Structures are given as C-alpha cells and as structure tokens.
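Quick question, first post here. What does this chain look like in 3D?
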Amino acid sequence: MLYTQRDTEENRSRVKREGVKMVLCALPFVAMAVAGFILRNELLCAAGCILLSAMLIFTTDLRLMPVVRYGRFLRDIHNGLQRTTVGTLVRLGEDEVYEDGVYFSELMINIYEDMSEEGERRFLLDRSKPRPQALLGGDVRVTSQGSIVLDVEPLSGQEVQA
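> Answer (accepted):
Ran it through. Tokens below.
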C-alpha cells in the first residue's frame, strides 16, 4: 500500500511543527500590540494587531492549511471503500492535478483487451508517492478509493488470464 500509518504520524508532526512556527512568528506582533496597549500608544497597538492578523492569515493559508488538508485526505483514504481494477498501464501524466487539497498526477489504465480508447480509466496518484515507471505498458492491478490510487502492483501471467 502506498499510504501507511507512518504517513499519518508524519503529517501530525508536520501540523504541530507548522503550528509552533506560526506561534513563534506571531510573538513579535503580539508583543508590539501589548506594548502599545500598556504604553497607551494607539498607533503602535493598532499596527501590532493589524500585522498580527495579516501574519496569521498569511501563514495559516500558505503553511498550515495544506498540511491539515492532507491529513484529512489521509484520514478519508484509510476509512473509505476500496475497489480493484485490472488493466494495462497506458501512461503516467506529467501535469499536476489539484483535487481535495492534494496535488496528484494522472495514471491511465486501459481495461479493454483490444486497447480501444473507451476502455481508458483515469486514476490519481499522489505526487509525493513513487511513480510506477517500470510497470508502464504492463498489466497491473490498481487498488483505489474513488479515483485515488492506493496501490499499484504488477499482475502475474496466471492472473491476467483469469
């Protein structure tokens, strides 16, 4: 399987690390706002509050939320229904596809024996997972949840005929 419990644990530690970084970045602006409040300097207090708000919005949106979204994605992957599709791995896409807060690349499987275009199925492979370049053109079994690839493994000769 491409996704393990270790991925979830690593994501949790990344969320904590990003949260700590965010708090450390906020401390100077909090100190600025508190100093302005204590000194009764309205301009300093307002500037501290505005800069604190801007920094929190910026770091939350760019640093923390992508990691949180990926954690939700991992939780959904482990709890959803899985299905298996057997076919020939036709191509691996190079372009990034953004879906459910995660960047993927396309993986195209053809399930028809005559390899007609109607038999192509599109799956999404997490960009952080290894790409199965060696399996290109061969028969594979894809385990997925919806269109998200959970596992790609080659088929032996006996399984292809079955």
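The chain has a mean pLDDT of 90.
The beta strands are 83-99, 102-110, 120-126, 139-145, 148-154.
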